[in-house]
Design brief:
By secondary structure, this protein is of the alpha/beta class. It has helices at residues 46-59, 78-91, 104-108, 112-120, 135-140, 147-160, 178-190, 209-215, 224-237, 259-275, 279-288; strands at 18-20, 22-23, 42-43, 65-69, 97-102, 125-131, 163-170, 196-201, 243-246. It has eleven helices and nine strands.
C-alpha cells in the first residue's frame, strides 16, 4: 500500500480498508492544526491507486465500504475523482459506501449534478471540518471561508441527497470571542441538516501559530471550565435534532442520538461538570493529546 506518511482516518466510520488518494491538505493553513505540517499537497498517481486497489481486492474482496484518505480528497476535480470511483468499483464491486473528509471549499468546484453522480457511485456521507459558524472566528483561525459559504455548500449537499457531518471546535475563538463563537456557530448549524454534529476541544499543539500567538499574549486560551461553559452555550442555542459526538472534549461522554430529546440531560451533565470540575485532571488529559485525530 502506498501510505506516504501518518495515516489519519475517521474512527467513527469503518476504519478499514483505507485508500490513500491524496497526500496532505490543500489549505494546510488553519492556525490550530499540525496534521499535515511539512507535507506538500499532491494527488496520488493513478497507477498507485490501481495497485493499492488490487492489493485491497485480495484482502477485502467482499467489502461494501472504503474510506478515502488523506486530508481532503474531495478537493480533486470531478473528472479525476469520478475515475477513482470507477476504479474502486472495478476492483471492489460490492462497495456501496465511499467515505471521506472534506473542506467547505472543496464543494464549491462541484456542481449539483456532479455531486449527485458521486452520490450514486457511493459518496453518500462526508465529514466537514466546519469548526465555527462565526465569521470573526473563521477569519481569526484562517479557515479560508465564511458562514455564508457553509450554508451554501451544505444546502448543495442536501439537494444532492448526500449526508454530512459538521464539527464545532470548542475554545478556538479564545476568551476574546468565546460567546459569539458559540452562539453564531449554533445559528449556522441550525440552518443546516447534518446527520451528526461533532465537538472537539482546542488543544494548542507545538508548532501551531495559535500557540505562538498565545505565548505572545495575542490569544487567550480558555480554561477547562470556560471550555465547558462555551460548550454549554453552543448546546443551549443548538435547535436541530441530530446525532452528537463529543470526542476529546469533556470527561463525561455526551455522545448519542436524538440531540433534542436528550438536550435537557446533556445540559444537566454539563452543569454538573462545570460545578464540580477537576481542572487539574482535565488539563492533564489535554496535555496527553498529540494530534487532532
Amino acid at each position: 500500500m502506498h501510505y506516504t506518511g501518518t495515516v489519519y482516518r475517521n474512527p467513527y466510520w469503518p476504519t478499514e480498508p483505507l485508500l490513500e488518494v491524496t497526500q496532505g491538505c490543500t489549505h494546510n493553513s488553519c492556525k490550530f492544526c499540525t496534521m499535515y505540517k511539512g507535507v506538500p499537497f499532491r494527488m496520488s498517481p493513478t497507477e498507485w491507486i490501481e495497485e493499492d486497489l488490487q492489493e485491497l481486492a485480495a484482502i477485502y474482496p467482499h467489502t461494501d465500504h472504503i474510506q478515502l484518505i488523506s486530508g481532503n480528497p474531495l478537493c480533486m476535480k470531478f473528472e479525476y475523482l469520478d475515475s477513482i470511483f470507477d476504479l474502486i468499483h472495478k476492483y471492489l464491486p460490492k462497495v456501496k459506501n465511499i467515505y471521506m473528509q472534506a473542506r467547505v471549499t472543496d464543494l464549491k468546484s462541484k456542481t449539483l449534478e456532479e455531486l449527485k453522480i458521486l452520490k450514486d457511485k457511493g459518496m453518500k456521507e462526508i465529514s466537514l471540518g466546519i469548526e465555527s459558524g462565526d465569521d470573526w472566528t473563521l477569519d481569526r483561525i484562517n479557515k479560508g471561508y465564511h458562514a455564508e459559504d457553509i450554508l451554501e455548500q451544505c444546502h448543495k449537499l442536501e439537494d444532492a441527497g448526500i449526508h454530512y457531518w459538521m464539527t464545532f471546535l470548542n475554545g478556538v475563538a479564545g476568551r476574546e470571542h468565546s460567546h459569539e463563537h458559540a452562539v453564531n456557530s449554533a445559528k449556522i448549524f441550525n440552518q443546516c441538516r447534518p446527520d451528526l454534529v461533532g465537538t472537539a476541544g482546542l488543544t494548542l499543539f507545538p508548532g501551531t501559530p495559535l500557540l505562538e500567538e498565545a505565548k505572545r499574549g495575542e490569544f487567550t486560551p480558555l480554561s477547562e471550565k470556560e471550555m465547558l461553559i462555551e460548550l454549554r452555550t453552543f448546546f443551549e442555542h443548538l435547535e436541530i435534532d441530530t446525532h452528537l459526538i463529543t470526542h476529546h472534549t469533556v470527561a463525561t461522554n455526551l455522545s448519542g442520538t436524538n440531540f433534542q430529546q436528550n438536550k435537557k440531560l446533556i445540559l444537566e451533565k454539563l452543569n454538573y461538570e462545570i460545578d464540580y470540575i477537576d481542572e487539574e485532571k482535565l488539563s492533564w488529559y489535554r496535555r496527553l493529546k498529540r494530534t487532532l485525530q
